[in-house]
Amino acid sequence: NDPHAFLTLLRDAMSEIAERMFAEEINQLCGPSHYPLLNALYRRAGSETGVCYVDGQRKILQRPRVRRAGADGKEREHVLTSYQAISDPANNAAAVVTALAAGMSTRSQEWASEGVMSKSAASRHWIEATAAKITELRERDLRKMIFFGLMLDGVCLGDGAVVVIALGLLSTGEKVLLDFEVGASENAAVCTALVARLQRRSFGPPAGSRLLAVLDGAAALQTAVLTLWPTALIQRCVVHKERNLFGYLRKGDHAEAARLWRRLRLAQGEAAGREALAALQTFLRPLNAAAAASLAEAGDQLITLHLLNVPATLHVSLLSTNAIENVMRNYRAQTAKVSRWRLETDQVSRWTATALLHIERGFHRIKGHADLPQLLAALARL
């Protein structure tokens, strides 16, 4: 059970594999050692110390030497193709990308690889690998997926950059990170550019159905969605509105406000939803005019799901933007090592695409997904 013994066995196994590769190539060039090929251009020429790069490390091994006869009658060293393959430092690129994605900085790579991978080499491998992630994310075929919902939200980076991210909700309850747009702020131009690209990629609800968009209340997000899908239904995030209203109230009123918000979340159907919303309005009106006005501004968009008369089991996932807020939290963790964002390059896009694809691998289906057929039927009634 000694882990060091296991690693020793693993290294020995790699050495044995390399030796077999060398032997096979030499036999093809020179013939068997006991019966060399007649008039062969190649001959065995002993061995010497060599290296291989694997799993982020540099290994020492014995490599065989081969010499080749030239047209001028002189022999020259011939480097085995198999040795060239295993002695290429670029073999460690995958290990570098994995380490950086897990949070290691490029400055730590040289130490971690025992001097094999310099900071600049690690950075170069990272740039090459992450550039491909942008294409992987943005060229996924969305036409074969059946979507009913969309969540949009923005995350602020340093150096004046904002990334707006789109999360798609499938009819099976699964979630898909669709795309992102980088800008200076979460404005209408940035949001519209994002949703327009989604539409060009064939994202949208099935024909004859409306799109459900769960948003945090930002006007730019709502404008972008309704510009591309005029019949879309907007469900305002009740968590954002609740936090906003708590800022207007005295601490002594928080407990009753929390009870009324919980009543709204648990209410099922249009009648119960309207009663719960009216109770909140009645509670706020004598306490704080600004709070009452803020609630009135959101209006029926806070009870869009209730108005569709769908099971309250879906409220857990669809009354708030928590699903995409979790993406934002994980995104910040994935990019925490970035100390400077270079907006004049594609750095933000490369990091974002890589982080989003990594985050997506940990997704689960939304809670209450067994009741989605009722929501899909309600959205289909125009």
The major sheet is characterized as: 5 strands, mixed
* Average pLDDT rating: 86
Low-pLDDT runs: 111-116
Count of discrete alpha- or pi-helical segments spanning 4 or more residues: 16
Neighbour order of strands in the largest sheet = 6-5-4-7-8
Q: Termini, distance in Å?
A: 65 Å
Structure description:
There is one protein chain. With 382 residues, the protein is α/β, with parallel strands linked by helices. Helices cover 48% and strands 17% of the residues. The chain contains 16 helices and 8 strands. The chain has helices at residues 3-30, 81-86, 93-101, 106-112, 119-138, 188-200, 219-228, 238-246, 254-266, 270-284, 289-298, 304-307, 315-318, 322-334, 347-360, 372-379; strands at 42-54, 57-69, 75-78, 147-156, 162-170, 175-183, 212-215, 233-236. The strands form 2 sheets. The chain has a 5-stranded mixed beta sheet, sandwiched between helices. Strands 1-2-3 form a 3-stranded antiparallel beta sheet, covered by helices on one side. A hairpin with a 4-residue loop joins strand 5 and strand 6 (175-183). Helix 9 packs antiparallel against helix 10 (270-284) and helix 14 packs across helix 15 (347-360). The longest helix has 28 residues, at 3-30. The termini are far apart.
Q: How would you concisely characterize the structure shown here?
A:
The protein is α/β, with parallel strands linked by helices. The protein has helices at residues 3-30, 81-86, 93-101, 106-112, 119-138, 188-200, 219-228, 238-246, 254-266, 270-284, 289-298, 304-307, 315-318, 322-334, 347-360, 372-379, and strands at 42-54, 57-69, 75-78, 147-156, 162-170, 175-183, 212-215, 233-236. A hairpin with a 2-residue loop joins strand 1 (42-54) and strand 2.
